[in-house]
Amino acid sequence: AFFSYSVRAFDGAVQKVLLSRWVDGCEVYRKPPTERIVRLFYDPVMKYSRVSSCPYKAGQTIMLNVTPSMLPVPSFVPESGFLIENKGYVKAGADIIYETHWYGRLVRMFNVDKTI
Question: Record's superkingdom (predicted)?
Answer without folding.
Answer: Eukaryota
